[in-house]
Design brief:
CATH topology: D-tyrosyl-trna(Tyr) Deacylase, Chain: A
Shape: globular
Distance between the termini: 15 Å
Strand content: 35-45%
Radius of gyration: 15 Å
Structural class: alpha/beta
Order of helices and strands: EEEHEEHEHEE
Number of strands: 8
Largest sheet: 6 strands, mixed
CATH superfamily: D-tyrosyl-tRNA(Tyr) deacylase
Length: 149
């Protein structure tokens, strides 16, 4: 799975002009499932995201997690994180999971997040979304998690 984390002071996602998810300070998580991903991998990825120390402490050092600071999570599916840009000028997306698997893993990830974290909002899977954010820092962290043979 691929996650792109953006530390935000605020973020929201809208579909057809209607806000469907919104948080104040926390993490905007753009999430992409890949063909070999499974629920156990989603569980490990969420654990990493919740514990990743990318929020400032009193000394201004990135030493606190989203859980430590009580920040929100805004989870947005984004298959384009799997883009292959090595050949030509048009990206390929064969590295992304098929839509049915992607949706299943996204929904599983959301359910896990809601069970483990108090503030979780989402976009809408496969919708044409508009994502608005104020990146805090800016801090943007890619996280790749793969099953190992």
């Amino acid at each position: 799975m691929i996650a792109l984390l953006q530390r935000v002071s605020e973020a929201r996602v809208s579909v057809a002009g209607e806000v469907v998810g919104e948080i104040q300070a926390g993490l905007l998580v753009l999430l992409c499932a890949e063909p070999d991903d499974d629920e156990a991998l989603a569980d490990r990825l969420l654990g990493k995201i919740l514990k990743l120390r990318i929020f400032n402490d009193e000394a201004g050092k990135m030493n606190r997690s989203v859980q430590d600071v009580g920040g929100g999570l805004l989870l947005v599916s984004q298959f384009t994180l799997a883009a292959d840009t090595r050949g030509g000028n048009r990206p390929g997306f064969t590295g992304a999971a098929a839509p049915a698997l992607g949706e299943s893993l996204f929904n599983h990830f959301v359910a896990l997040a809601r069970a483990r974290h108090p503030v979780v909002q989402t976009g809408k899977f496969a919708a044409d979304m508009r994502v608005h954010l104020v990146n805090d820092g800016p801090v943007t962290i890619p996280v790749y998690m793969r099953n190992t043979p």
